[in-house]
Design a protein that fits this description.
Elements (H helix, E strand, L loop, with lengths): L5 H13 L8 H8 L3 H17 L3 E6 L5 E6 L3 H15 L5 E2 L3 E2 L2 H4 L2 H14 L7 E5 L4 H11 L3 E4 L10 E7 L6 E7 L8 E9 L3 H11 L4 E11 L15 E10 L4 E6 L9
Parallel strand pairs: 5-6, 5-9, 9-10, 10-11
Antiparallel strand pairs: 1-2, 3-4, 7-8, 11-12
Helix pairs in contact: 1-3, 2-3, 6-7
């Protein structure tokens, strides 16, 4: 790349970092890319670090030594994330979203890339220090959220399927019980999709009693994998404690469906446990 003025270099470096979260970038990469001295690059990174922290965009970590460099860690402070979820909650409270069984129609929201990018950044920020290897979800509605989260963590996505696909080779299948209606379902994961003893972040768009997530947890046991975290976009808050398969400490939720009245079509949604005790 040709040598840039400092102002242009700062803009380009910022974009370079934003598009490579959780990636260690040696200073020599920037020095060679912009034909600049490492001392100049270091000064630029100090400026970018200050902006990231002041604007709540994340942290810019510096690792010293021959194998060192810088790494961008996305963050989402409460002042930025809460208004997004409050706006999402108002959309979820629209009367025509009520579906049989106490569910909400969310497909249109899950199909908005800009919204999913912000939501994915929130979940990624919550588990930024969990040393995760892969992000997992079950097909199909949770896929946009999983990919948005994985993009912020710079990690691959593993899809658990309802039915085995012959094109994926041998697979592990388990039966699990849906916590809401006690019906039996099957989920399957190709053996090549996940390395044994991986640290996995489970992501799902909606959790009622937690049967699907518990099924994924049980499936991961077959791979000797570790559940490093569980992130949910919306949870149903009107489930009795003896019906819920996960405790509050087992997952984070961004929004909570607290009340739904099929007769009056009234829906109440509030921020989830993600915001409890969260710093401003």
């Amino acid at each position: 790349m040709k040598k840039l003025k400092r102002s242009a270099r700062l803009v380009e470096m910022t974009q370079f970092l934003l598009h490579r979260p959780h990636t260690l970038i040696p200073l020599t990469t920037f020095a060679e890319r912009y034909s600049a001295a490492k001392s100049s690059i270091s000064e630029d990174l100090v400026i970018i670090k200050e902006v990231f922290e002041e604007e709540g965009m994340g942290d810019l970590l510096t690792l010293a030594g021959a194998a060192g460099g810088v790494k961008y860690i996305p963050r989402m402070p409460k002042s930025i994330s809460l208004p997004i979820i409050e706006q999402l909650s108002r959309k979820l409270e629209e009367p025509d979203r009520i579906l049989p069984g106490g569910y909400l129609y969310m497909t249109d929201l899950l199909g908005q890339p800009a919204l999913m990018n912000e939501v994915g950044k929130m979940i990624a920020a919550a588990f930024a220090d969990a040393h995760i290897d892969v992000v997992m979800t079950v097909e199909t509605k949770g896929i946009p959220l999983a990919y948005a989260t994985a993009a912020q963590l710079n990690l691959p996505v593993v899809l658990v399927r309802r039915d085995h696909q012959v094109t994926e080779g041998s697979a592990v299948s388990i039966n699990y019980v849906s916590g809401s209606n006690k019906s039996i379902h099957t989920m399957t994961l190709a053996r090549r999709a996940l390395k044994e003893k991986s640290r996995v972040l489970i992501v799902d768009d909606f959790m009622k009693a937690g049967g699907t997530i518990q099924g994924m947890i049980d499936l991961l046991h077959e791979f000797e994998a570790v559940v490093a975290g569980v992130g949910v976009l919306v949870e149903a808050g009107d489930i009795e404690s003896d019906e819920r398969l996960l405790s509050d400490n087992d997952y984070i939720s961004l929004a909570k469906l607290t009340h739904i009245d099929f007769k009056t079509k009234q829906i109440s949604v509030e921020p989830g446990n993600y915001f409890e005790g969260m710093k401003k």
